[in-house]
């Protein structure tokens, strides 16, 4: 069986390629509320609907994740590991990315596809808005047509997987 590869039109950045030093990962502190995580991220502006009531998070302690950023959500990632697969990121991973790599959103708008709420009959997904000056946490509204969601060109999507303990 061959290893899935990324299609020529897709871009996949591993954590090593976007991290400042080897060994940088996303660290999520589940002891903090979503609001406290966002305060720690020090965003310039945050959509008020990005709140615990719309995006409840669950977990305990601190967890560490490898991460990747892809330019579309349905691309098979390199080196897929069946025991530890890549998954769409949730809002807490997106905030951790904003805390640890604040300059990354100056290049791309990056969304967390695993976190969705419905407001005014629209599916709302959190994303870090691409901007060279401000660091905003926004919501992207999409309406499903036959379960197909349309994203503007240039969006990137955050993928994560749990880090394995080192031997």
Helical content (DSSP H or I, runs of 4+): 10-25%
Compute the separation of the termini in Å.
27 Å
Biggest pleated-sheet summary: 10 strands, mixed
Q: Which percent range describes the beta-strand content?
A: 25-35%
The domain tally reads 1
> Rounded to an integer, what's the Rg over CA atoms?
16 Å
Task: Tell me the structural class.
Answer: alpha+beta
* Secondary-structure element order, N to C: EHEHEEEHEEEEE
Q: What is the average per-residue confidence, as pLDDT, rounded to a whole number?
A: 78
The coarse silhouette is globular
Low-confidence stretches: 1-23, 73-79
Count of helical regions? 3
In total, the number of strands is 10
Offer a quick outline of the entry.
This protein has 167 residues and is an alpha+beta fold. It contains three helices and ten strands, in the order βαβαβββαβββββ. A hairpin with a 6-residue loop joins strand 8 (122-129) and strand 9.
Detailed description of the structure:
- The chain has helices at about 15-20, 35-40, 90-100; strands spanning about 10-15, 25-30, 45, 60-70, 85-90, 110, 115-120, 120-130, 135-140, 155-160.
- By secondary structure, the chain is of the alpha+beta class.
- The chain has one domain.
- β7 (about 115-120) and β8 form a beta hairpin.
- α2 (about 35-40) packs parallel to α3.
- The longest helix has 10 residues, at about 90-100.
- The radius of gyration is 16 Å and the shape is globular.
- Residues about 1-25 and about 75-80 have low confidence and may be disordered.
Descriptive labels:
disordered N terminus; alpha+beta
């Amino acid at each position: 069986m061959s290893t899935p590869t990324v299609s020529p039109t897709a871009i996949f950045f591993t954590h090593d390629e976007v991290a400042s030093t080897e060994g940088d990962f996303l660290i999520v502190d589940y002891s903090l509320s979503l609001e406290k995580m966002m305060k720690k991220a020090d965003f310039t502006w945050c959509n008020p609907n990005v709140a615990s009531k719309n995006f409840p998070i669950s977990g305990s302690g601190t967890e560490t994740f490898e991460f990747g950023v892809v330019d579309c959500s349905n691309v098979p990632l390199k080196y897929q590991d069946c025991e530890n697969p890549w998954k769409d990121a949730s809002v807490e991973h997106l905030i951790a990315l904003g805390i640890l790599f604040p300059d990354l959103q100056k290049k791309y708008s990056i969304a967390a596809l695993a976190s969705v709420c419905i407001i005014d009959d629209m599916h709302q997904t959190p994303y870090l808005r691409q901007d060279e000056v401000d660091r905003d946490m926004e919501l992207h509204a999409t309406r499903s047509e036959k379960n197909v969601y349309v994203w503007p060109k240039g969006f990137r999507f955050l993928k994560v997987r749990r880090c394995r303990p080192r031997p």
